[in-house]
């Protein structure tokens, strides 16, 4: 994945928000399904949004609107002041809980998969990688499910590998169909 992790700190008054865990794909001439992913540290959007908006402003020029679903957030601010400008937050019941859309005054838009704050790091990083893959065709609501399914398949394969003594099959494989790398036979 050719993405960057943005590390931004506050330039305005008040305490500096923590650097957002944000992965953005490089800007391209074609519109991707997702522009990247964001893994907030908490379920408080009023705390998380200032750092995210500062990071997104590097790409959007000036973020003016955030569209998000209410399900995974403990608070529901309608307006957030960030670096001297107002960002309006629009809450939509039924909007995917793992999608955030940010728009600018010029009409530019970024669609981000939101990884739940409580997600374990390995799963969060795998989901971020899948969301930002060039040519990704998986929508935000399905990405974590796909990552968890791959992880569960790899775990089941490893369990089978261990229970069978860790020997390679007659064709040189472990017998599984996972795309994940498998242990090699000791030399």
Quaternary state of this entry equals: single chain
Strand content: 15-25%
Q: Taking strands numbered 1, 2, ... along the chain, how are they ordered across the largest sheet?
A: 1-2-3-8-7-4-6-5
Question: What separation lies between the terminal Cα atoms?
Answer: 33 Å
Largest sheet: 8 strands, mixed
Helicity range: 25-40%
Mind telling me the C-alpha Rg? 20 Å
Whole-number total of structural domains: 1
Uncertain spans, ≥5 residues at pLDDT below 50? 1-16, 175-187
Order of helices and strands: EEEHEEEEEHH
What best-fitting shape do the alpha-carbon axes yield?
elongated
Mean pLDDT: 78
Biased composition (Polar residues): 1-13
Biased composition (Gly residues): 166-175
Region (Disordered): 1-23, 155-187
Short description, anyone?
The chain has helices spanning 45-60, 121-131, 140-163, and strands at residues 4-6, 22-24, 36-38, 63-68, 79-82, 85-91, 99-104, 109-114. By secondary structure, it is α+β, with helices and mostly antiparallel strands. Helix 2 (121-131) packs across helix 3.
